[in-house]
Structure formats: structure tokens, C-alpha cells
Amino acid sequence: MHSRHLWTAAATATLVVVLTGCGEGATPMNDAAPGSTSSATGRLAYFGALPNDRSSGALVLDLATGRQVRMGDQQEAWSVAWAGADRLAVVRGHARISGDGPGELVLVAADGSDEGTPIGGVADVREVASSADGQHLAFLGRTETSSNACSDPAATERMGLYVAAVDGSGARRVVDVPTASRFLALSPDGRTAAVVDMGDDTVIPQGRDWCNPGESRLVLIDTATGVTRVVAGATAMPGAPRFSPDGNTVVLDGSDSGYPDRDVVLVDVASAQATRLSTPDVVEANPVFSPDGRSLAVLRHRAGQDPGATATIAVGAADGSGLRDVATTGTEDYGLAWMSDGSHLVVAGAVVTMACDDDDGRDGGVVGLAAPAGGCDVATATTDLRVVPASGGELRQVSDTVTGFDAGLAAAPLV
């Protein structure tokens, strides 16, 4: 359900995805009760393409009006964070799909009225995050551009964690991090960053490369001092971390053996200790705290069954207890966001149709997809965004312009 592990193919597999339904208007996906989503308000940033776009970029959707605008120019975008209520920090470049080009970090107006102003003088940025207090940005990058191909020589400059004011000023490098670092999150007060990395890349064991120097781990970094703590008890395959509104807890999904084994993981920030909420019968992913910190929402489906056929959104207490289904999605879901007023949840999902000419199983299968007998590694997918009241109800489509399997959902802070 989280795009960066759900849609990862086996080494020999090829996933062909046809994204259908690009258009500026949004039509209901099903017949929701009158007024069931009329109160949905707020703005949502995500990755998508409008009809005249040449590539997928960062879009902003106004839920109240249905209006969508593209941020900046026609470059690809692969990481986005709100920099206050009216601007976004966007990582963009010309090589999102191939992954072998540098990323540029820019500040852009949320109404799409400018091309973007570069931040920090860092030439190769991977990810950006912002603090809930609207004062701080953090990003992973380096001043040297280089190839991201694992077979090429590693860059002479290591990747670093940078912090800056929300307007991009005062950017400084906090500490070196492994080049294979991802899933950056910043605490609400900007004092702690959470990052998933692959361990020390200064010493690479035989048979590995700089993309894969060690085992995945979740680390917490003090943004003032650079002191780094490895989280104990985390799973071998951690997903994207998210801080609670009070900053005391980090939530993520994780597993030890791959996608079918994913559970909710809670991390106590003070002790850097993780607790896995094991649910053998249910696959759970993309957990996110409510804006008031009292509740937790998660995407889930029955273990061993077709993800789309049994997929739901569940909501429970902040400690992960008492989860109950509030909506059935009917899609393979890969993004979940809680709108900042707490009233609605937004899900990104896809109707996936396997499309194989050869089903003899020689190519293996795609992780997370329900392949037909014999194996299948080619599929088409129709993707969209839908909204539902957090208390439960019918889902209603609000956009069909979302592209790919990393929706990058980010709700704008309240004004």
C-alpha cells in the first residue's frame, strides 16, 4: 500500500503501467449520499499531470472547488512539502523516472503563479520535508551532482541532511548521511529528523554497492547537533516515518520479509525504541496521525488475498488500538492523507488489471499484485484520488489526474 515497496518488481520483472483518465474535472466514483463530502475543504498537494502537461509534476487540488493547478514549470517532481500555507518546497528535475539526474529544490507559490525560486544552493536534492509549525525545512542532498546509477562510481561528496528556514534562508548542512537514504520526515518543532537509510556507506561489504551498503534502519537525527540515534526494535524493511502532532511518536509501516508482512510500527522518540503492532491476518500500511493526535488512520487488506478486493481505510486510537474500517476502497491503495481540519481522509489508489501475453510464470510476479495462475508481471492501472469523512462513509472521487504509484499526498496547513 505504500508505493515505494508495494510496487517494487522482482529483479527480472517488468511492470508496464498505463495511466488513464487525465483530466481537469473530477466526477463521482460512486453514488455517495447527498452532501456526504460537501464539507470537504482544504488544499492537497500531490503528483499528477493535467491535460496539457508534458510530464508528471506537483499539483495542488482545492477540495472545496475542485480546481487543480500545477506548481512551477514542466519538470518532473518527486518530493513536496508545504512551506507555510501559501507556498510549497518541491524537488524537481528532468529525470524522475530514470532516477539518474540531479534534483533541484525550489519554493513555489501554491496558486501556480511562479516558476519557483531555488533554495540552499544544493545541486542534487533527493527529498524535502517541513515542520508542522511552519518554520523549518529539511532536505537530503549534496552540492556535487553525480549519477545515481549504482553501477557507476560513488560521488566523492557524501549525501547530507540540510536544514533551512521555511523561506529557504540560512540553509546549513547538519550531518553526513548514507547516499542510500530516503523517507525523510521532520518533527513539528523542527528539532528532530527521521530518516531511513541503508547503514554505513563508507565501508561497503563485498558483493554490495553504494546503493546497498547495509541493512535498512530508521534513524533519528538532532537537527541542531547532528547526533544520530538508530531506532531499536524497528523492522528490517521500514516504510516512511511520520511524526505525531506533539512530536513524541513516529509512526510507520514495516516488515521483516516483504510487503505481505507489513504492520504498523510506533517509535517512542525519547527512547528511540520501536514497537511493532503485529497483525498476522491483515496487511497494514501508510499509517498517519490525525491533526489532533488522538487517532490513527491506516490502509489495510486481508493477508493472502487480492489487495483491491479486501482493501479498506481503518481508523483507531493513536496507539493503534481499536482500529475499525470506515470505508471500503475497492482499489490497490498507495497513499493516505488526513486533511488538516481533521474532517476528511484522502486516499490514492488504482484499479489494476493484469495484462499478460505470456503467463507461464517465467518472469515471476510483481510484489503486491494479485497475479493470475502461472505468474504475470505486466499490468495496466487506472489511478485516482478519493475523499471520505474520517468518521466513515462513501468515498467520492476528487481527481483522476494522479500519476504513478507515489502520490506524494500532503495536506496544506490551516491558515
TrEMBL record:
<dbReference type="InterPro" id="IPR011659">
    <property type="entry name" value="WD40"/>
</dbReference>
<dbReference type="Pfam" id="PF07676">
    <property type="entry name" value="PD40"/>
</dbReference>
<dbReference type="InterPro" id="IPR011042">
    <property type="entry name" value="6-blade_b-propeller_TolB-like"/>
</dbReference>
<protein>
    <submittedName>
        <fullName>Tol biopolymer transport system component</fullName>
    </submittedName>
</protein>
<comment type="similarity">
    <text>Belongs to the TolB family.</text>
</comment>
